[in-house]
């Protein structure tokens, strides 16, 4: 399945206030807390929300920190995606 939903939620967590999102605050906060460093380390050269950052996360999935990978897995389980 596409990784688009988790990337969009992750990037939304990085740039949007919690109240502005339709995603549950707990998942958004988990992604924000767990993956901000990974975004900054691997993909910050791309503007949040664009197709370039999505491709960057896909290319770097194996390089993500364990907490970020776990947050993404939790998001996928909650959304019923793989």
Please tell me about this protein's structure.
- This protein is mostly helical and 82 residues long.
- Helix content is 66%, strand content 0%.
- The chain has helices at 4-15, 25-43, 51-59, 66-79.
- Helix 2 (25-43) crosses helix 4.
- Residues 16-22 have low confidence and may be disordered.
- Tell me the span between the first and last alpha carbons: 6 Å
Structural class, from secondary structure content? mainly alpha
C-alpha geometry: globular
Largest sheet properties? none
Strand fraction band? under 5%
State the gist of this model:
66% of the residues lie in helices and 0% in strands. It is mainly α and 82 residues long.
Top keywords for this entry?
mainly alpha; 82 residues; single chain
Question: What is the fold's blueprint, element by element?
Answer:
Layout: H1 4-15, H2 25-43, H3 51-59, H4 66-79
Helix pairs in contact: 1-2, 2-4
């Amino acid at each position: 399945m596409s990784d688009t939903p988790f990337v969009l939620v992750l990037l939304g967590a990085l740039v949007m206030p919690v109240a502005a999102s339709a995603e549950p605050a707990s998942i958004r906060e988990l992604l924000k807390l767990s993956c901000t460093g990974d975004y900054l380390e691997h993909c910050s050269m791309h503007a949040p929300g664009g197709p370039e950052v999505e491709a960057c996360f896909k290319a770097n999935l194996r390089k993500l920190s364990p907490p970020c990978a776990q947050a993404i897995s939790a998001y996928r389980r909650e959304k019923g995606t793989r």
